[in-house]
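Suppose a colleague, Dr. K., hands you the sequence of a protein chain of 130 amino acids and asks what its three-dimensional shape might be. Before reaching for any lab equipment, you can write down a predicted structure in token form. Begin with the sequence itself:
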Amino acid sequence: MRNYNVNKFSRVAVATDDGKTISAHPARAKYFEIITISDGKITDRVRITKEIHDALNVEGEKSSLNGKNKHIIPAFPECTHMIARGIGSNAYHRLLRLDIHPILTDIHSIDEAINAFILGSIISHTNRIH
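The predicted structure, expressed as tokens, is then:
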């Protein structure tokens, strides 16, 4: 388990199927909720579909990833974190190499997870890497 502290500015990608709950696995999620946090407050929230996400991926990234992992690498270089309830080992390490910190939570609600992130109390459970 790891505790995270929010910086003055963070952009968090959250895997979701409905915009309310965190998906069990980003590769199977329909959307990514992109939440911008500045000085401890949500300043922007945008939902992108998998189709838009795939189209925005940098050329070359797709060819180096297998069919599942290409869907979970956020296409936004300014994302600092990604929240999900589980993730494959290859994707987890790929995100770290891109300086995007995966947070694997047992929290189901996006709003609750983001609040915990802002408060610095969200915990990443590395046992959720598979």
